[in-house]
Every structure is written in structure tokens, then in C-alpha cells.
């Protein structure tokens, strides 16, 4: 519908342009002919009146053309100022400057356009990792931040989770001052490392059971790279600033569901390996913990 309206407006603008060109040509034709015999004795006055009438028609046509063009959905022309005279240079090297300048203006305008779109989308994003209003000092003073938690409290939460599972071993280290780095061995299936800041989970990396575990190097196996992607999504899904201990326990429960990564089939297609990716179901539903292939989870 919008495309039909734009085509109609464009045809109207072209029609107005043709009318202007036709009437302007008529003005110049009248000027070139000058006084004619049919003007009579008062030929000069009649000639001026005829010319004035033609100019009045052209003026009206120009007004109609401007209104029609302004209604078209076309971008505003670049205001290059005195740099527009670069296009009139006679040397080829200087003429190239004008093209580069126009491209830089277009690139800058695109940056402004995309930035405004990003600002609009980000302002509508409700997935904030804190309920604390940065503009309210009173409220900030009342709520406890998940970043400022005593190491003993963090150890108690993680050790309680460790005692809940016989096939998942959790160890705590602190190579970066007081923040904990938790290593997880899940049976003989996988290893994972979770970086904490207080009780806030900041980073997760999942690897195969026989791989060297660290925070930054991805697994050499595609399946564990998929599990790492799912773990990042789960980390954000379970995050709760008001119930941080529940968030950590929920994430660990979700991660423990991968103990049957290579034995449980997909709940949707019923296959162990997907027919296109040839991967086991590397996604676990956040609520039911049921296994799905990435292609089957929608």
C-alpha cells in the first residue's frame, strides 16, 4: 500500500515538473518573439501583460512542484557548504575529494541513524541486571548489592549446592582477590567454570571432560560450544537481584541436567543426533529441564 502511494506521488511530481518546463519554455519563446503584429498599437503594454501572466502561471507551477516534492519520502540533501565547489575542479585528483567527502557524510548520517535506533531499542529493554535506580541515592542505600557479599557467604551457598549432588563436584578458588571462580566436574560428561562477583554470576565456560579448563578458551568440540551458549542464556534467565542464592541454585540445577547429555534423546524429534547438525540435544528447557536440539526447541 505504501509503495503504491509513493509511486502515485512520484508520478504527480514528474507531471508537475513537466508542466513547469513547458510553461518556462513558453515564457522564453514569447520573449524571443518580442512584439507581434497582433499586439496592435498598444503592443508594448499588451506584450508586458502577456509576459506577466505567463510568469504568474510559472510561479504557481513552481509552488505546486515544491509542495509535491516535499511530500515525497526522499532524504534531505547534504549541506556541504563551500565544499560543493570541489565538484567544479578541473583536476581529477581534486574532483575525487568531493566523492570521498560525500561518502563520509553519508557514513556519518548512517551512524547517527543507527545510533538513534539502538538508543530507542535499549531504552525499551527491561532485562536489567539490577533493580537499583542509579538516580536515587536513598534507594541505593537501602538495597544490598549482589556484588558486595562476604566470601564466607558465597562459600556457604556453593558448598550447600555441592552437597546436594553426588555426581557433580564443585571446587572454589579465588585467583582474582575476593571474587570466586567455581570449577564444576559433572560426572564424566563435562567441565564448567563460573566466574562470580559476589553472588552474581559473570561468566561461564563449558568444556569436555578431557579438556583443560580455563575462563577464556572455547572448547574444541562444537557440542560444548553450544552448551556454553545455552549456559550464558541460562545465567541471564535465572538472575534475580532480590534472591541471589536461589538464582545460583537454579542455575546449578539446570547445569546438572546435562549429566545425560549423550544419552537422553530430544523430546521433540526423539533422536539422539540431529539429522543436519549431527549434534546431541545441547539445549535444556529452563523450566522442565527437558533436552532439545537447537533446531527443535522452537
Automatic annotation (TrEMBL):
One of its GO terms (cellular component) is mediator complex. It comes from the Eukaryota. The keyword GTP-binding does not apply. Keywords: Nucleus, Transcription, Transcription regulation. One of its GO terms (biological process) is regulation of transcription by RNA polymerase II. It is found in: Nucleus. InterPro entries: Mediator_Med27. One of its GO terms (molecular function) is transcription coactivator activity. The keyword Transcription applies. Its main location: nucleus. Pfam families: Med27. Belongs to the Mediator complex subunit 27 family. This is Mediator of RNA polymerase II transcription subunit 27. The lineage of its organism: Eukaryota, Metazoa, Ecdysozoa, Arthropoda, Hexapoda. The gene is LOC106123992.
Amino acid at each position: 500500500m505504501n509503495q503504491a502511494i509513493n509511486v502515485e506521488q512520484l508520478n504527480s511530481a514528474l507531471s508537475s515538473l513537466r508542466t513547469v518546463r513547458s510553461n518556462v519554455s513558453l515564457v522564453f519563446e514569447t520573449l524571443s518573439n518580442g512584439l507581434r503584429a497582433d499586439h496592435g498599437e498598444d503592443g508594448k503594454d499588451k506584450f508586458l501583460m502577456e509576459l506577466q501572466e505567463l510568469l504568474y502561471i510559472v510561479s504557481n507551477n513552481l509552488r505546486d512542484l515544491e509542495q509535491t516534492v516535499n511530500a515525497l519520502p526522499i532524504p534531505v540533501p547534504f549541506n556541504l557548504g563551500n565544499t560543493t565547489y570541489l565538484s567544479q575542479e578541473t583536476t581529477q585528483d581534486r574532483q575525487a575529494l568531493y566523492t570521498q567527502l560525500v561518502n563520509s557524510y553519508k557514513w556519518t548520517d548512517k551512524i547517527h541513524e543507527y545510533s538513534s535506533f539502538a538508543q530507542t531499542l535499549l531504552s525499551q529493554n527491561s532485562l536489567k541486571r539490577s533493580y537499583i535506580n542509579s538516580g536515587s541515592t536513598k534507594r541505593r542505600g537501602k538495597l544490598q548489592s549482589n556484588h558486595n557479599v562476604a566470601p564466607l557467604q558465597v562459600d556457604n551457598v556453593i558448598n550447600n549446592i555441592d552437597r546436594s549432588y553426588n555426581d557433580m563436584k564443585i571446587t572454589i578458588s579465588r585467583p582474582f582477590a575476593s571474587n570466586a571462580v567455581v570449577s564444576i566436574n559433572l560426572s564424566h560428561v563435562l567441565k564448567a567454570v563460573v566466574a562470580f562477583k559476589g553472588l552474581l554470576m559473570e561468566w561461564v565456560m563449558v568444556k569436555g571432560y578431557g579438556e583443560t579448563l580455563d575462563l577464556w578458551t572455547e572448547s574444541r568440540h562444537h557440542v560444548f560450544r553450544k552448551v556454553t551458549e545455552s549456559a550464558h542464556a541460562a545465567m541471564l534467565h535465572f538472575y534475580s537481584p532480590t534472591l541471589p542464592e536461589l538464582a545460583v541454585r537454579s542455575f546449578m540445577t539446570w547445569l546438572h541436567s546435562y549429566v545425560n547429555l549423550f544419552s537422553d534423546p530430544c523430546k521433540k524429534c526423539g533422536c539422539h543426533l540431529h539429522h543436519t547438525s549431527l549434534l546431541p540435544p545441547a539445549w535444556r528447557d529452563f523450566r522442565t529441564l527437558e533436552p532439545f536440539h537447537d533446531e527443535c526447541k522452537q
